[in-house]
Amino acid sequence: MLGKLLHQSLHRLAQRYGPIISIKLGHVSTIVVLSPEAAELFLKVRDVVFASRPKVQSSDYLTFGTKGLAFTEYGSYWHTIRKWCILHIFSSSKLKNFAPVRKAEIEP
């Protein structure tokens, strides 16, 4: 229904309905932002509202009740987990220590 030239179809929809459109793509509700002003509203002013990932039932089983960094909701717990990752996994000393392991993984 959107046609082969998606950008033109979205432009026509924006002219008709405005710069923020909610479209259902299959079973996924998608918000399309079609103007720089609306994008700034989403990314700068209301960023905390859209910071969390959608909660899916499989993440409860895969990450022990959404306790992993990738699936946890945005908030104080997410900040704590992120801080631990930066300090204990992605610090420059840890990256240097694991450089030979990474190099061995990419070589044939």
From TrEMBL:
This protein's record includes keyword Cytoplasm: no
Record has Protein biosynthesis as a keyword: no
InterPro entries listed in its UniProt record: Cyt_P450, Cyt_P450_sf
Gene3D superfamilies assigned to the protein according to its UniProt record, in alphabetical order: Cytochrome P450
Subcellular location field: Membrane
Pfam family, one: p450
Keywords: Heme, Iron, Membrane, Metal-binding, Monooxygenase, Oxidoreductase
Cofactor names: heme
Family: Belongs to the cytochrome P450 family.
Xref: PANTHER family: CYTOCHROME P450 (PTHR47943:SF9), CYTOCHROME P450 93A3-LIKE (PTHR47943)
Protein name: Cytochrome P450
Organism lineage: Eukaryota, Viridiplantae, Streptophyta, Embryophyta, Tracheophyta
